[in-house]
Amino acid sequence: MLKIQQVEDKIITVGGKKVLLDSDVALLYDVQTKEINQAVR
21: exposed, middle or buried (C-beta count within 10 Å: 0-12, 13-18, 19+)? Predict the structure, then answer.
């Protein structure tokens, strides 16, 4: 189970917007980065 703090620690600010990098999302869900990118497409 993901903890809120785990997610919050991965959030960065880019151009004034809060974002999660695809690699961080992959780590949180224990999948490969390419699977995250395929899901987004």
Answer: middle
- Phi, psi values for residue 24, rounded to 5°: -70, -40
Q: Give pLDDT, residue 5.
A: 86
Is this model's pTM higher than 0.90 or not? no
For residue 37, what are the β-bridge partners? none
User: Where does residue 22 rank: exposed (0-12), middle (13-18), buried (19+ CB within 10 A)?
Assistant: middle
Q: From CA 36, how far away is CA 20, in angstroms rounded?
A: 12
Q: By the 8 A CB rule, do 11 and 21 touch?
A: no
* Phi, psi of 13, rounded to the nearest 5 degrees: -110, 125
